[in-house]
Task: structure prediction
Amino acid sequence: MSERKRVFSGIQPTGEAHLGNYLGVFRRWAQMVDDYECFYCIVDLHATTREYERPDLVRRVFDLTVSLIASGIDPERCTLFVQSHVPQHTELTWLFNVVTPVGDLQRMTQYKEKSAAVDSVNAGLLNYPVLQAADILLYLADFVPVGEDQRQHLELSRDVARKWNARFGELFPEPETLTGSGSRVIGLDGVAKMSKSMDNTLPIVAEPDEMWKLVRTAVTDPARVRKNDPGNPHVCNVFALHEFFTDDGRREDIEIRCQTAEIGCVDCKRLLNDNIVEQLAPVREKAAELTANPGTVLEILDAGADRARAEAERTMSVVCERMGVGREALHSSLRELAGASP
Ligand code: TYM
Result:
């Protein structure tokens, strides 16, 4: 096994990858391969907990893979794969279910929000964080880079590791949550986190005209009604996004010119849009190239799943042996009994 610490992270294929994903995690995922052994997973099984159409799901798995690679995640230097291609994720989920109190799952904020929004709550929605714990712990991961919204689920993963270790013997490290700059990017409405389900996102592979159509709708400082009202950039989400796309000097200039009403909100959005479009141009180009070569993308995912499966099998053989399930556990116990008998 490699000496480097392990990283695991995942993303749901529930829509187009957006700037929240890109700024919150993709950039960090791309860098972390320098220092860690990284497993990055497209969690399609998690996405089945909400209503979906089959063709959309498979297309989104493909598109998300493209977006991840185009964002700089090098599949040669990490293990990039699809969750359902490694069946041990669901196997471990079942075994973790038996050490997870239902009350803990019912207390999850995301469960409360998602279950309140549907008429009939499926069991998958409740057990969602157990599958997430299985994702991470299957690879004995030390670190999990995520946005702020995942903190509570990560806390539950640590509880699962602790409970399982206490009952069946030390095996799983308690994974540490890594958040950093961009860990809660706000959406176009200026209020909620940027999220596919809130329909307030800027997709990273949007064409320039599509990007402008979206950026121009972004909510700005609500107190600034007319162009010659002085603005307050510190309560404006458009200005907050400049932090990621505009260098310090130009940002200070925008800040002053907004406060003195020298530029209006549309000017500020135009500058932001131009910088986003320019900086994401290589991502768009790489995405177009990969989309035109689906065979390459499938090969990458197959190789990733093979590597992930080999690791997953290693962990599952210890888990099954300790829990007394599976063929090997039965065979080895009977061999021991036979050896002990006179
Ligand atoms: P998901 O698919 O909602 O989001 C993927 C990652 O992007 C981060 N993110 C954001 N970061 C900053 N600002 C935002 N507006 C924003 N929106 C999303 C998320 O925090 C996340 O890191 N349950 C997870 C997927 C998952 C997972 C895992 C993650 C399944 N198994 C194991 C880590 C480890 C989810 O729904 O992420």
About this structure: The chain has a mean pLDDT of 96.
